[in-house]
Model the fold of this input.
Amino acid sequence: MQPMRIFVILSRVPYPLEKGDKLRAFHQIAQLSKQNEIVLCALNPAKKLNKQEAFSALQPYCRSINFIDLPLTGRLWNIFLAFFKGLPLQVGYFYHTGAVRKIKKLIETYHPDHIYCQLLRTAEYAEGYQIPKTIDYQDVFSYGVKRRMETTSFYMKPILRLEYHRLINYERKIFHLFDHKTIISKPDRDLMPLALEEREKIHIIPNGVDHDFFSPKQAPKNFDLVFTGNMAYPPNVNAAEFLANRIMPAVWKERPETKVMIAGATPDRKVIALKAEKVTVTGWMDDIRDAYAGARIFIAPMQIGTGLQNKLLEAMSMKIPSITTSLANDALGATDGEDILIGDTAEKLAKNILKLLNDEELYQKIAENGYRFVKQTYNWAQAVDKLNNIIRGK
Done:
């Protein structure tokens, strides 16, 4: 198979892997590089980034690695411009004329066979090039914002409502700008604000999980429950509050000694406020496997948000019995009562926690079946092989 030169445009540097889009991008690049030549162009809005560490992690997979810093003043100005242009504000946040010039120069230098953009935030950078292009929607951003509107403060509602309508229009617009479109799951595809015949043209490319890295690990179980993720991400903040304030009081009534760990990078002040005698908020962990292995049960009580929850894949791959909501499981596709336990109310989720803590036979069954399910269903090599064929027009 003749290698292709793929120009990858990302809205963030895909390392470290503490966010879902970075995790997806890193593993897709690693797998695509086995049969193709990768030229990576990653925007960098982060204040703190160990560029040398990120470069070293990505170097084995890329012919060229380019990090383009997005200065704060430029981001604020471009949000202002996006408001008057009718673009989603987050598209403005990631758009910079200096980055446009650098990307143009890189494309002129490397003459790629294909442009691969991750997330609609990068779509503006690919417009105008007569080169085959693929956009990875990954999630349905418009629907994610719609769900956030239901729980946000009154002063944020008008801003999110504006963003919601602009995202709908933008998701429709970019559909016609790209030759191929991908998304993370069928439930997400079904939520795209497109006609049925257009939605069916979007390819489903699920995430995988590194089963060698996230493998069963023996460790002291110092916590009964763990919830992990980027704790600045609004759906995770919402889920953490739901867990500590709504679910756990019912659990503590029956098992007052139950301890909870909330682990993940950059915890929001609302998450930090959840710290208590029986609730530990860790912040960044050098090895997130320690969080999974140190707890008896993993829970992802997602109330808002879209997409496939990588945290569930990782926990189940480590043979940690898991509990979640229908919202998260719709993308995952596990069987309730066999591979996982599902609940959509605080009461049902609390009952599921108590079931696993009190029933060793059920505990072992969910752990084993969940482990087997993700091993069989979620594999990076298989997922990216499908993406590679799409890029090649097969």
